[in-house]
Inverse folding.
């Protein structure tokens, strides 16, 4: 495995992985539990990542609206993350898009609900003190 050319094409040979190994190494080393990274582990991680991304894209394209448009969209990916059990762990990373105005409206409603709850709690504590 160590004899295989990895990285840029050399003498017309095809690359083993497409992702930049230096970036993957940096990400892997960012974990405090990792002290050194074997070259084979690095290549295998890169290849596994490529295959995962390919599977996610293919699945999202087939099960999303991409077939009609012949394109894969962000909403296809976020729908897959939300609806598929396999990709459920990506729901926080690929959230559904929301307009800023809709988000601000939702945030305002949430704050109003919290204020009402606080007022209700204060009224209840005032009633308890009056009974004492």
């Amino acid at each position: 495995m160590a004899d295989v050319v990895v990285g840029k094409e050399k003498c017309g040979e095809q690359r083993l992985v497409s992702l930049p190994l230096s970036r993957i190494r940096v990400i892997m080393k960012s974990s405090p539990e990792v002290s050194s990274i074997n070259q084979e582990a690095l290549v295998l991680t890169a290849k596994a990542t490529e295959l995962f991304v390919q599977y996610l894209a293919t699945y999202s394209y087939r099960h999303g609206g991409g077939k009609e448009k012949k394109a894969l969209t962000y909403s296809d990916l976020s729908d897959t993350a939300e609806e598929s059990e396999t990709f459920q762990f990506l729901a926080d990373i690929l959230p559904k898009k929301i307009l800023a105005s809709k988000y601000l409206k939702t945030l305002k409603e949430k704050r109003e609900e919290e204020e009402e709850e606080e007022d209700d709690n204060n009224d209840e504590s005032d009633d308890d003190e009056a009974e004492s």
In short: The longest helix spans residues 100-131. The CA atoms of residues 26 and 32 lie 12 Å apart. The domain at 21-97 is CATH 1.10.20.10 (Histone, subunit A).
